[in-house]
Specification:
Its EC number is 3.2.1.35. By secondary structure, the protein is an alpha/beta fold. Helices cover about 35% and strands about 15% of the residues.
Length: about 400
């Protein structure tokens, strides 16, 4: 029997599958028989107030980012976990010492312990715990733009404790103390969480990052630069302690319906998979990709079906363990937006829901460029996908 000819898109997906085959397997899924899960994490209670029903059947877990205890996914924002040092450049205010060198680690961990007890019950139920600390990055060289304030305050701190050092030595001291304190704060915090709630998968939102912007350039490939990959390698201590990774693939409006959206997403997920393999464990920690129903730079334009494929479809094909569809309160604050959200839910249900074939271990992904995608041995190993044939016959 002759093999069917495959399109360029199908060949690319096959390449993704087999290029990932050297990676170690991922630990079994949190939800039995669901190697790829869709998690809703947006305040849909607004829909209830507006009397607009939503069918959330496509999602294995429906959660909200509001401060509600006992959820499958708990997100710890900066004010919900301990005493996170940061600077509010808009308000020109310093909180909890401003930089990690000035933080009180003991008091931080005491408060964090109580907050973990409050938000996550003591039973052994599975779930995700996401630490969302974004004000500063743990690597000195990645604190650019508005985050450069942390470098400036760290230099001032170094000058205060060692005023007679040459300037070049002061800069080195500032960098070393900042990275040491930041590492200690993050390590102790995530270790506390894992120790108290080991059945949850813990990690930091947005890490690893790829910084693969510049999609407006003609030669855009979406690849993470060698420089960024080397920097991410320096965070091995974090990958060794994390029990899940939570990269973000939020799309800018300028990527709408562009093939570069898939390049942007693909390389971010691949970088997460690369760093997940760095600790050299017999298994790889799961990767849950953060996405949004809307484009990231506004609150009224929902992602097209093509872009949902570029985010959810790419993530699933690459071997992610799931996608978290996140949204804030301002995203869903009127009836027009809520009704548009129903359409997105329907697209999710009818176009992207992974359905199990009756009396079979096969799963079918509908409408992903008319390809049937089947994950094999997905529960015991990393979710991989094989393209079986083109143009589903109706």
């Amino acid at each position: 029997m002759a093999l069917p000819l495959l399109s360029t898109g199908a060949i690319c997906i096959l390449a993704l599958v087999f290029s990932a085959s050297a990676l170690p397997p991922v630990e079994p899924p949190l939800i039995h028989d669901h190697p790829f899960v869709a998690i809703w994490n947006a305040p849909t209670e607004q829909c209830q107030r507006l009397d607009i029903p939503l069918d959330t059947a496509a999602f294995q877990a429906v959660t909200t980012p509001t401060n509600r205890p006992g959820q499958f996914l708990t997100i710890f924002y900066e004010d919900r976990l301990g005493l996170y040092p940061k600077v509010d450049t808009m308000k020109r205010k310093i909180y909890k010492g401003g930089i990690p060198q000035n933080g009180n680690l003991t008091e931080h961990l005491i408060k964090a312990r109580g907050q973990i007890d409050h938000y996550i019950s003591q039973d052994s139920s599975p779930g995700l715990a996401v630490i969302d600390w974004e004000s500063w990055r743990p690597l000195w060289d990645q604190n650019w733009g508005s985050k450069r304030i942390y470098q400036k305050l760290s230099i001032a701190h170094a000058l205060h404790i060692a005023p007679f050092l040459p300037l070049t030595q002061t800069f080195k001291l500032a960098k070393r103390l900042f990275q040491q304190a930041g590492r200690t704060l993050m390590e102790k915090t995530i270790s506390l969480g894992i120790g108290k709630r080991p059945s949850r998968r813990w990690g930091f939102y947005l890490l690893p990052d790829c910084f693969n912007y510049g999609w407006d350039k003609s030669n855009y490939t979406g690849k993470c630069s060698v420089k960024i990959q080397k920097q991410n390698n320096q965070l091995l201590w974090l990958w060794e302690r994390s029990t899940a990774l939570f990269p973000s693939v939020y799309l800018h409006k300028s990527l709408r319906n562009s093939p570069r959206a898939a390049l942007f997403v693909r390389n971010r997920v691949q970088e997460a998979m690369r760093v997940a393999a760095l600790p050299k464990r017999p298994y790889m920690v799961p990767i849950y990709v953060y996405s949004r129903p809307l484009y990231r730079d506004q609150t009224q334009l929902f992602e097209s079906q093509i872009d949902l494929i570029s985010t959810i479809g790419e993530s699933a094909a690459l071997g992610a363990s799931g996608v978290v569809m996140w949204g804030g309160m301002k995203d869903y604050n009127n009836k027009v937006i809520q009704k548009q959200l129903i359409v997105v839910f329907e697209l999710k249900i009818h176009s992207f829901k992974v359905k199990k074939k009756e009396n079979s271990r096969s799963f079918l992904g509908k409408n992903i460029k008319d390809l049937k995608l089947i994950p094999f041995d997905a529960v015991k190993t990393r979710l991989t996908w094989a393209v079986t044939h083109m143009e589903e016959k109706k």
